[in-house]
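Project outcomes to date are best conveyed with an example. Our students and postdoctoral researchers have been running inverse folding experiments weekly, and each run begins with a structure described purely in tokens. The record below, which covers 114 residues, was selected by the lab manager from last quarter's runs and is presented without edits.
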């Protein structure tokens, strides 16, 4: 498994954009990578995921706004967050999944507020 470190969280105004990064301690080539979030008072939910082959899936609430991408050469996965609104306020977590299990990062806070 790998250690994951998220970055890029910030306070942003509604309608704004952020890019989250997740840097892994080792190769992510064989991992399915994902982003989850937990909003205040809500359950954790899957935001986006990308397979080893590059296939993606998204929560309905972020489709068309939050493209996920991976750069295996840099052991990094990204979440580009566009057209942000207050419902996107949450702690965002990176995950790496393979046959051994799931690794989680510690999270990065995204706050959308005017």
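After processing, the design step wrote out the following sequence:
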């Amino acid at each position: 498994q790998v250690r994951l470190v998220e970055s890029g969280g910030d306070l942003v105004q509604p309608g704004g954009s952020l890019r989250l990064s997740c840097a892994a301690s080792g190769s992510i080539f064989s991992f399915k990578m994902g982003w989850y979030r937990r909003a205040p008072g809500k359950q954790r939910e899957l935001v986006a995921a990308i397979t080893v082959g590059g296939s993606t899936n998204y929560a309905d609430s972020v489709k068309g706004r939050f493209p996920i991408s991976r750069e295996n050469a840099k052991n990094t996965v990204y979440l580009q967050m566009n057209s942000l609104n207050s419902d996107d306020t949450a702690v965002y977590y990176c995950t790496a999944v393979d046959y051994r299990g799931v690794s989680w990062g510690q999270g990065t806070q995204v706050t959308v507020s005017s």
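The first strand starts at residue 4 and ends at 7. The chain has a mean pLDDT of 97. The training component of this project remains on track.
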